[in-house]
Design goal:
single chain; Dihydrodipicolinate Reductase, domain 2; nine-stranded mixed β-sheet; six-stranded parallel β-sheet; 10 helices; 17 strands; 33% helix; binds alpha-L-sorbopyranose
Length: 379
């Protein structure tokens, strides 16, 4: 079957540029039934010495150093934004105006006003869009979604999630600039709230519905750091750690924690959901497993099941190897590309859309406002 081509223009060549590029590259081999196929038309970033090598390594046909030129090109159908957060809004709004489809890296933007402008631009242009909250598409997490949606857990009482890292403990680590922009509030918007809790919030809303109100605290443990670009010691404005609790629209209670100061934890994302009839829990460090407790099991056999999510009947797994053989972090991005291409076929949305990511951003904003004002905030 002749495939319809979607020409991708990728902007940004960092860690996320690589994960997305890998996603596009795997489609032809592992999702052969899709009607659409991605073509890596152009990659764009400013560092010319690295640009050619990136294009060659990942298979891009051409390069640009100015994102505006890439957006103007008639041979680009979809713009993929993998740049630092401070550029998401400007690029997305320009891409929407140019009628391009948009795939934007998370978080949607630095703050709520920027996100709102992006959502409005998308709505005005009517272009297809998605935001890369990739963890939704780890098969065990998608299975959790299916179990919750089936009603098997019954009424939900609790949701809790953690995202723990330790990479900024060193007080000598500079802030800002290449590789360290996540530590510069002017570029990132916030610290762990936008970078890590946004993942937890996206998954939580997806699994358990909207969040009504939050009560949060944040801390910046290291108050000053040398800025990599200016060489000056400057105040640090990002949140190094944040804990919050919340009430979901369905009446359940949520408890969330994220930090970059949990020594020994590199990227430990975990969540647990407790319902009247059962519970689920998941851990990124053992990502092929979903733990499930079903209170309906025969009482003398009842206990936590550890489901190895590798069976062809389970989400996405018929695309990969044979039962028992696991997949990894990078596959969540492949799945997002596949779902995006499928959504072009079906005409459905590929969630999370900009609108969905805006809902997440509202919660992030309420969390930051709550911590700053030491009070409850509605979302
Ligand atoms: C930060 O270290 C980071 O790379 C986030 O930016 C990603 O979104 C997260 O998935 C892993 O950690």
């Amino acid at each position: 079957m002749e495939k319809k081509k979607i020409n991708i223009g990728l902007i940004g060549g960092g860690f996320m540029g690589r994960t997305h590029s890998n996603g596009y590259n795997r489609i032809r081999n592992f999702f052969p039934d899709l009607a659409y196929t991605p073509v890596l038309k152009a990659v764009c970033f400013r560092n010319e010495s690295k640009l050619k090598a990136f294009a060659e390594q990942w298979g891009y046909e051409s390069t640009e150093t100015d994102w505006r030129k890439l957006i103007e090109r008639d041979d680009i159908d979809a713009v993929d934004i993998c740049t630092p957060n401070d550029t998401h809004a400007e690029i997305a709004i320009a891409a929407a105006k140019a009628g391009k489809m948009i795939l934007c890296e998370k978080p949607l933007a630095r703050n709520l006003p920027e996100s709102k402008e992006m959502v409005d631009a998308i709505a005005a242009a009517g272009v297809k869009n998605t935001v890369w909250y990739n963890y939704r598409r780890i098969p065990a997490v998608t299975l959790a979604k299916n179990i919750v949606a089936s009603g098997k857990l019954g009424r939900i009482y609790h949701y809790r999630a953690n995202f723990l890292q330790d990479w900024t403990i060193n007080e000598k680590l500079p802030q800002g600039g290449e590789g360290l922009w996540r530590m510069d509030a002017a570029v990132a918007g916030s610290g762990v709230v936008g970078d890590l809790l946004s993942h937890c919030i996206d998954t939580a809303i997806w699994l358990n519905g909207g969040i009504q109100e939050v009560s949060a605290m944040t801390e910046t443990f290291v108050k000053q750091r040398m800025h990599q670009l200016t060489g000056k010691v400057e105040d640090v404005h990002i949140d190094d750690a944040c804990s919050f609790f919340c009430r979901f629209n369905n009446g359940s209670l949520g408890l969330f924690e994220s930090t970059r100061y949990a020594r020994g934890h590199k990227a430990l994302y975990t969540f647990e959901i407790n319902g009247a009839n059962g519970s689920l829990r998941w851990d990124l460090h053992d990502l092929n497993r979903l733990e499930y407790f079903d209170n309906g099991d025969e009482s003398n056999l009842r206990g936590w099941r550890s489901i190895h999510v590798t069976d062809g009947e389970q989400p996405y797994m018929n695309k990969w190897w044979v039962p028992g053989l696991g997949i990894g972090y990078e596959h969540s991005f492949v799945h997002q590309v596949a779902d995006f291409l499928k959504s072009l076929e079906t005409g459905e949305d590929c969630g999370p859309t900009f609108q969905d990511a805006y809902e997440t951003q509202k919660v992030c904003q309420a969390v930051l406002d709550s911590a700053a004002s030491r009070s409850w905030k509605s979302c």
